[in-house]
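Field: COMPLEX_INPUT
Field: COMPONENT_COUNT = two
Field: RESIDUE_TOTAL = 486
Field: MODE = joint
Values follow.
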Amino acid sequence: MIRIENLSKTFTMHNQGGAIIPVMAGGALQVAPGECVGLIGQSGAGKSTLMRMVYGNYLAASGRIMIGDLDVAQAAPRQIIRLRRETLGYVSQFLRVVPRVPTIEVVAEPLLQLGVEPAAARARAAALLAQLNIPERLWSLSPTTFSGGEQQRVNIARGFAHRYPALLLDEPTASLDAVNRAVVLDLILEAKARGAAILGIFHDEAARATVCDRLIDVTGFMPKAAA
Amino acid sequence: MTFHQPVQDTPLLRVTGLTKHYGARIGCADVSFDLYPGEVLGIVGESGSGKSTLLASLAGHLRPEFGRIAYDGRDVLAMSETERRRLSRTDWAYVHQNPRDGLRMGVSAGGNVGERLMAIGGRHYGDIRAKATDWLGRVEIAADRIDDRPSAFSGGMQQRLQIARNLVTAPRLVFMDEPTGGLDVSVQARLLDLLRGLVRDLGLSVIIVTHDLAVVRLLADRLMVMKSGHVVEQGLTDQVLDDPQHAYTQLLVSSVLQV
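Field: COMPLEX_OUTPUT
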């Protein structure tokens, strides 16, 4: 479902003397449907950079990023928008929403974008929020004022609202207590069971052991220093 | 296994090589892009970058010297003035930065909305008033303000009224020039939320000009960055903002104050 081949990335800092910083070379991995692959490697090794490239948020310098039959590295913006709406979900560490939109709407939005009936979308959103222990009295409020852990859970509910065939998870269990951590791990296992291909970053080793089938150390994708 | 169907629709607006000079000075030069149904295109750049010239040229307020604008397969620049005016009353809408430029200040709120319906042949007073009331509700203006003049409204309400006036005729393409420009931030957030909902529910195509990167991040699917009349970079909005390729875009993004 996710297949990366010979991926490389450089940043060119035009306003800092045109410095060219290579950050990845020869990146390659595959994630099959129903499989969860964890990215490991020290901080700065390029785990988040790789995830962002898969999501189309960072441009690839070269290589292929196949999600189903679309190459994200070559795709037009509107193909990526459609991919993100239908096929590829992303749970980031931070919630970015329009202020004042109620939590329930934030979670239901990916389904509304797909044309799901508003009542059905809200019912699914409510079920997820309840499962993630967000008290019902908060559902009509904007999540911008919530605590870090609550925002994280709203973000997870939003990311799991639509049953994406492929999912990117960036530290989904960070800043969660034991109970909610278990709920999130269940959601991940459930997604695997229905056939989702998952690529994730988990610093929590026990979580990694519970959900990941394989680990890939991205240190191997760091460009070799010129000799 | 095909999760991803090829996208097969055709562009609503196809712009090629659009160029407008002011005497010897470049307004905008060689601008080309496609806009698809339901898509929101943001145009950013500093003052004088040509973004407003481009918008005005697209909307028919300025006459470009070169280039082509095809709307739904029709050559806009070759149309007669009558045809073009009909288009801007029915299929197109234009939301001005200053609501005073888009509203008739001496006419009631209901009249402002109803007027556009009458311009396209609406005659039944009861229907027009009912539709105007419905639209005031959709932009969150209380029904009991229908007979008040916009001059009695706050800036945010005036802007919402301008949007109702524009959308009542169910346009397919909406031009917006700094629609949140003169509003304070809490009012901006409310307007952004409203616009997002309307774009999604009505399937509108939108071209929005702004200098506010936070606004385009929340509203626009795609982004075009302009400098000195030229498009220097375009792409998926979050990609252009998070991984800018052109020197000018990098400067623009890194110059935003963090809060």
